[in-house]
Amino acid sequence: MTIIESAVEINKPINEVYTFLSNMNNHQQLMPENIYNWSSTEDDAQFTIQNMAKLAIKISNRVENKELTAIPTEKAPFDVELKWTVEDNGNGGTKAKHIISADLNMMMKMLASGPLQKLADHQTQKLKEVLG
Questions:
Q1: CA-wise closest residue to 108 among 76, 83, 70
Q2: How many domains does the chain have?
């Protein structure tokens, strides 16, 4: 299993960050430009990654003010889990971490781990910009 992580500190209380992340409609604001055909509800999202694949994901687990997990609802090119964790940073803000767990073979790891890391980093930075 390949684990890709990106973390960011946000000067907002934990419940505000969690509430934003728990609604999939808000995740469109966190996506890079190569994501299009976005459609979402509070619990799921469908989108196309340019030159790659169409993905449909849904929130499979919510732990209030702690974590959210999303998994594919249709067959994906590989097993993947998208998780956000949030924790109090001790001074009124929140530490948010985006964790992508993907079951990649060696070939897929070479091809996909760079873009997946870039995606995780982009989403955490956008989260900071949107909520900052």
A1: 76
A2: 1
